[in-house]
Amino acid sequence: MNLVDFFKALGDETRLRIIHLLLHSRFLRVMDLVEVLQLPQSTVSRHLAMLKRMGWVEDRRVDIWVHYRLNRELSAALLTALKEIFTDQLTFQNDLRRLKQRERSDTGSPVP
Question: Which of 32, 73, 83, 85 could form a disulfide with 28 if both were Cys (CB 3.0 to 4.6 A apart)?
C-alpha cells in the first residue's frame, strides 16, 4: 500500500465522516451510513469502496448484509489520534448523535 494514497483517502469530508462513525461502532452497513449521513446509497458505496481499496476499512458478508468496520490492522495510536481530532467538529458530532438514535430505534439489526 502506498502511504501517500493511504492518507489521501482522508482528503474528503464524507470519508472522514464514515471513518468517524466506524470509530464508534463495531460495524455499520451501507444502509446505516446512508441514513446517518443523509447521503445517497451510491455516494456512500463509492466512498466505502475507496476506503477499502486504501486499507482503511474491511468488509464481511453476513447473510444478505455487508458489514463494514475499520481495518483491524490500523494502529491504536492512529485511531486514538483521529478520535481526538473529530471530538470538536460539529458535523462529526451530529453524525454520531444520529447514529446513536438509529441504534436505539433499530433493534432488528443483524449482529455479526
Answer: 32
* pLDDT for res 103: 87
Q: Rounded CA gap, 48 and 67, in Å?
A: 11
| 102 domain residue, yes or no | no
Is residue 1 over pLDDT 80? no
Q: Which amino acid is at 59?
A: D
Q: What is the pLDDT of residue 108?
A: 55
Which sign, positive or negative, has the C-alpha torsion 90, 50, 76, 11? negative
In whole angstroms, give the CA distance from residue 34 to residue 43.
9
Mean pLDDT of the residues in the chain? 89
Strand order in the sheet with 28-29: 28-29, 65-70, 57-62
Q: In terms of Cα–Cα distance, which of 80, 71, 67, 78 is closest to 111? A: 67
CATH number at residue 49: 1.10.10.10
Neighbouring CB atoms inside 10 A of 40's CB total: 10
